[in-house]
Design goal:
Layout (H helix, E strand, L loop, with lengths): L2 H26 L3 H12 L47 E5 L3 E6 L5 E12 L2 E11 L4 E10 L11 E2 L3 E3 L6 E9 L4 E10 L4 E10 L5 E12 L12 E6 L6 E3 L1 H6 L3 E5 L2 E6 L2 E6 L5 E8 L4 E8 L2 E3 L4 E12 L2 H7 L13 H18 L2 H15 L1 H16 L1 H11 L3 H15 L7 H20 L23 H16 L6 H18 L4 H27 L2
Parallel strand pairs: 1-7
Antiparallel strand pairs: 1-2, 2-3, 3-4, 4-5, 5-11, 6-8, 8-9, 9-10, 10-20, 11-18, 11-19, 12-13, 12-15, 14-17, 15-16, 16-20, 17-18
């Protein structure tokens, strides 16, 4: 197989992806001035509740008909308002085996969540990554509440808690955090957060105690507010935005511009809505078999909201109602996500080649469980892939070895026919036929390996299981670039050796281009994840051995 062509195909593929990404960012980026004007116009036409879902209206005394009552028009909102918190500064601190988080007493939502098992940097293992945050550099918060008839506790209401700090006991499997809100009319809402040991799923129960003399009706809602990240020109782009899953569409992503152009507005049973970024996801999980409405809002030129609200619920006078909800806040571990909700593991996004990426990851994970080191698992996976593709690559190498053997005769044909390209091409075809050479013999192995390479690229880039895991010596993170560029240099050297085993192009210009390609690709691969470059170095070494052996056999034959 002509590995130079393989590198060129790969380079063209990635460059095309980068150009497409750059085009999308340049031509689909929001225009701040236009947006500001639009928001100002909307502010004069609508109410002051941009980030609060609609409430049930036309309440009737019949509890049985509560779910059939009409609701306000969701589009009648003011997009110019809706900050996370207006102040207060009162929080409940919670610490479990997986989290260190804060619950804001204004609204009762999660305003900060540190993931204790995931450091910001492998060099600072004691500093956990803050996934949910409400600060100047990062806005990503959870909001929830109840809208309904009369005064209800939405995410701007003030709650009270018995303690300011909760911590799970060493031998306890569960931790409950209770917040309470009540109004002067006798309606009490208790919001109970339940944290389970070794689980990233947080259960939320809304207990509504209606001590009034009238039927109470409302909606429970959960939403995530996020500021889109600043535009980046980095080579390794990863998606940050929203995603939903429905029985009809198992996984659909929305970036900021998608939400602006086509807002989420759909009734769903057995689905979820989420905000994801690279290795982590926060997903709102409605109760099974219950219809919920998924929605999105654009608040300004940076902030957006995705959320869900229940069908109208009702509590009769003197009665209590319990309305559960769940939220997942944690890493995109496929095995964990698949057990939390149907299709939630699809947030580990391997792109259009997911059908190749998923089996590759499963084999890679099995090898890791067997060996105990992700780096060695990548090396063994490379060997297995090389064995799997051995017949195809051997056919390509035999074709290249035969072309190398007859190259002196090809040069003689070039000298004989000079600029008469028609006669030279005919003579070349006769030569190929005589020597039984297929000039396209290396194309099939190339076409087969390119999807595998790109799928493995996304596996190494998307899998949180490989985040900050070391291999050996200086390689402390297989998902980051090699800090000393040793692997890219080895890749460039191996590519140069492979060129020496291939027949040199007859065109002098092509020869010069091929000579500089190892240097170009050394720089190109210097920014790739170390695990991917490790795969390619091992693949090149195995290819050199295989090609050298086949070339030697062909050249020694008569």
């Amino acid at each position: 197989m002509d590995n130079t062509r393989l590198f060129l195909f790969i380079a063209l593929s990635f460059i095309s992806l980068m150009l497409w990404d750059a085009w999308q960012r340049d031509y689909h980026a929001p225009q701040p001035a236009a947006v500001s004007t639009e928001l100002e116009n909307q502010q004069t036409l609508s109410s002051d509740d941009a980030d609060i879902p609609p409430s049930p209206t036309n309440v009737t005394p019949d509890v049985g008909d509560a779910t059939n009552n009409p609701v306000q028009d969701p589009s009648n909102i003011n997009l110019a308002t809706g900050l996370a918190s207006d102040g207060g500064g009162s929080f409940v601190e919670v610490e479990t085996d997986l989290y260190r988080l804060k619950i804001d007493l204004q609204g009762g939502g999660i305003s900060s969540a540190f993931l204790l098992k995931y450091p910001v940097d492998s060099k600072i293992p004691d500093e956990p990554f803050e996934f949910v945050a409400d600060n100047n550099s990062r806005l990503f918060i959870h909001q929830n509440g109840i809208t309904g008839s009369g005064e209800t506790p939405d995410h701007r209401a003030i709650f009270k808690a018995n303690k300011s700090r909760y911590q799970i006991e060493d031998k306890a499997d569960q931790l409950n955090v209770s917040l309470t809100w009540r109004n002067a009319q006798g309606l009490t809402v208790e919001k109970i957060y339940t944290f389970n040991r070794n689980s990233y799923v947080v259960n939320i129960d809304y207990i509504v105690d209606n001590a009034t003399s009238e039927l109470w009706q409302g909606r429970v809602y959960e939403q995530l507010q996020r500021a889109k990240p600043a535009s980046s020109r980095r080579l390794l782009y990863t998606f940050t935005g929203a995603a939903i899953s429905t029985p009809e569409d198992l996984y659909e992503k929305y970036d900021y511009d998608d939400l602006k152009d086509t807002p989420i507005d759909i009734d769903v049973t057995n689905g979820w809505v989420a905000v994801l970024e690279h290795y982590f996801v926060a997903a709102l999980l409605p109760p099974p078999e219950e219809p919920y409405h998924f929605y999105s809002r654009i608040l300004d030129e940076r902030r957006f909201i995705v959320g869900m609200y229940s069908q109208p619920i009702a509590v009769a006078p003197g009665q209590q109602g319990n309305f559960p909800s769940r939220i997942f806040i944690g890493p995109k571990q496929q095995e964990v996500l698949s057990n939390v909700a149907l299709n939630l593991d699809r947030t580990v996004d391997y792109g259009v080649l997911w059908f190749i990426g998923e089996p590759l990851f499963k084999v890679l994970q099995w090898l890791h469980d067997l060996i105990g080191n992700w780096g060695w698992a990548i090396i063994v996976l490379t060997i297995l892939l090389k064995l799997f593709f051995y017949p195809l690559s051997a056919a390509g190498y035999r074709s290249m070895a035969k072309m190398r053997k007859v190259q002196p005769r090809m040069m003689a044909l070039k000298e004989r026919y000079g600029d008469d390209r028609a006669r030279m091409n005919q003579a070349m075809m006769d030569l190929y036929k005589e020597e039984k050479i297929n000039p396209l013999g290396g194309c099939l192995p190339i076409l087969v390996q390119i999807p595998v390479f790109i799928a493995l690229y996304w596996v190494l880039l998307e899998s949180v299981e490989l985040r900050q895991v070391p291999f050996a010596l200086w390689l402390t993170d297989l998902t980051a670039k090699d800090p000393y560029f040793v692997l890219p240099l080895l890749m460039g050297i191996s590519m140069w050796v492979q060129q020496k085993l291939n027949p040199a192009p007859m065109d002098p210009v092509q020869q010069k281009v091929m000579q500089i390609l190892p240097f170009v690709f050394t720089v190109f691969f210097a920014f790739f994840p170390a695990g991917l470059v490790l795969y390619w170095v091992v693949n090149n070494i195995l290819s050199i051995i295989q090609q050298w052996r086949i070339t030697k056999v062909i050249e020694q034959s008569k």
